[in-house]
Amino acid sequence: MKLKIDDCDERMLEREVRVSMKFNGRNVHISPSAKLGSNVRVGDNTVIYDGVEIGDDSIICNDAVLGEPLNDYYHDTAYQNPPLIIGARALIRSHSIIYAGSTIGNDFSAGHRVTIRENTTIGEHCSLGTLSDIEGYARLGNYCRLHSNVHISQTSSLDDFVFMYPFSVMTNDPYPPSSDFRGGHIDSYTQVGVHAVILPGVHIGENCLIGAGSVVSKALPAFSLAKGDPARVVMDVRKYVAMGKGKPYPWMNRFDRGMPWEGIGFDAWRRQQAAES
Amino acid sequence: MKLKIDDCDERMLEREVRVSMKFNGRNVHISPSAKLGSNVRVGDNTVIYDGVEIGDDSIICNDAVLGEPLNDYYHDTAYQNPPLIIGARALIRSHSIIYAGSTIGNDFSAGHRVTIRENTTIGEHCSLGTLSDIEGYARLGNYCRLHSNVHISQTSSLDDFVFMYPFSVMTNDPYPPSSDFRGGHIDSYTQVGVHAVILPGVHIGENCLIGAGSVVSKALPAFSLAKGDPARVVMDVRKYVAMGKGKPYPWMNRFDRGMPWEGIGFDAWRRQQAAES
Amino acid sequence: MKLKIDDCDERMLEREVRVSMKFNGRNVHISPSAKLGSNVRVGDNTVIYDGVEIGDDSIICNDAVLGEPLNDYYHDTAYQNPPLIIGARALIRSHSIIYAGSTIGNDFSAGHRVTIRENTTIGEHCSLGTLSDIEGYARLGNYCRLHSNVHISQTSSLDDFVFMYPFSVMTNDPYPPSSDFRGGHIDSYTQVGVHAVILPGVHIGENCLIGAGSVVSKALPAFSLAKGDPARVVMDVRKYVAMGKGKPYPWMNRFDRGMPWEGIGFDAWRRQQAAES
Description:
The structure is a homotrimer of 277-residue chains.
Chain A: H1 5-18, E1 29-30, E2 35-36, E3 41-42, E4 47-48, E5 52-54, E6 59-60, E7 65-68, E8 84-86, E9 91-92, E10 97-99, E11 103-104, E12 109-110, E13 115-116, E14 120-122, E15 127-128, E16 133-134, E17 138-140, E18 145-146, E19 151-152, E20 157-158, E21 163-164, E22 169-170, E23 185-186, E24 191-192, E25 197-198, E26 203-204, E27 209-210, E28 215-216, E29 224-227, E30 232-236, H2 266-276
């Protein structure tokens, strides 16, 4: 059931009594055309504009802007804010700004000061770290994790279970400045190290590991451990032996926190998936 | 004609009726000594302090701080906020902070969470991307573009049409820590790639292209295509042939979006400029 | 003497008359359980949650969040906000977010949009630049300075007088993704250049100088001048001769701004310290 804004305000008033610390409904502005699901909590000073839909049990913290209008708004008097759809159980932390015109799946999590511009599609169970910046016209699959300060340029795309670490960046302009944007693409399970740069249009295969500070200028086949500027394939990740740790890659058999195979193991989950499809 | 604050508030009240989505005048604080031009719109929760002047037809979005006081304010009871002058048609997006004591030309555009400190001079038609950070005591010419997360240290300067890409940085301290700041200088038309570092006091000539992730430690002559750590001149940019694209540099004949030669071509514009001067 | 919130509000009202520019008490929310010292000023739109203690003569600027609740708050109805202790004379600039559950010493200074998460211990006289991001479970000694956009991962630690420059980062995950965090450690007086990456678990000795853009993958002995990817020791910093400057390292005899040896010299201060201990 979708609540109207009046119901929502009433709920927040009740909550104010129960929870003195946050979600006081102070200086909150919610457009009458926004649709908030059941049990959505909204922090102080947050603004939710026209056409925003937020799924049940979501939490929007303080000082956030949801449905930030596109550039046309400032010049076009007939401007209509395109919808921003956010799934259930979102947790969007304070000072984040998400534009109108994007779609975000269930179980989304955003750190502080995240920026997501228009025409971005984000799958389910994704998380974006503090200060991450998605420039719009981009696509993230399911279970992707961008840590702090990751920059995703327009026309970039990630498949599922791609993790990118602080200050890594996907670029899109082969001959700057131009308007011929060619974002790169990263296949599933790949890990992109801190400060790594993916140059425009580069395709990185599944299950790669990109070293810190690398500049990736050419396509990398699946299972590449690559590093350097320009990045070179050092070895197959499956041959990489960590001191006293065995072979840590692929990583899915040794890490499951928040993953769909949590508690059952990656192989069992894959078999489940295969059986269901 | 400069409006007084009372007129401005009245206009915003009218606007509130017409435009339900933004510019509601909610929780806006404008100093009585600020001078807002005609048709200036101010977003919710924004604060404009003493001595700020904003040109006609400008838009200041939500949660911004203009005229942020300098450090002395916190300790000196006789402190007076120095003026912040912003030209006409500015578009300053939400969560940006611009200090008192700077001058910004017409047609300025700022993304979200931009920081500009005092004693900064910015020419006309400049744009600063989300999270860009100008530390003050810096100079940008006309038509400069800093993309997201560019860091400009004190005493740095850029001529006209210089574009810098995400996470690039101009440094200023040759022997950290010191107070002997020597910012670098970049001549017109030069493009600085993502994650590039310009070391203190370095002078980069006109029309250079600095590769992603470079560390530029020495002066570069005009038309250098340079990359690496330390950056070396790979070739003259005019000799660079892009696959299937011909010679993309200098870039002014193939890119004109927002440039003064838009629609007429760079050479014709240069002839016009020469004839006028 | 600790003031109760009611006294504090009264003081802010008086102040509103005296100082028209800032600290108007507009839209400020302070938890009744917060304890503000004498002469603490709080900027507009700032929120201070349960369990925050702020020392005398501190300044908290606009749009800040102090005592940001931990993740458990969103899921645990019995959640109690752990204390956030901030010492005397803090200056926390606008848009900064500091979580509950940390301790910060006297004379702390934060730029804009700083993020500090829980279980962080910061010594006295530290300063954090605009956009710096401490992920929690970290430790900074005394007189540390993080410039803009420095990223400190969980379980990292710095001793005293460590300075880190923009976009430098301490990482903590040797085999990403894992939950086996091993932050690095930096000994006193070391300087970490812009865009430098300290890889997980690396121990950097006293008085090192890490070049811009370096990737430090192995322990460095004291007095190393190291640079490159991977970083190699180029020379002993004590042998480094700067053009026309003599030998700039160690730096403590030529730089004293804000240091405890300001005006008396490093060696005299060291003798004082030795005599006192």
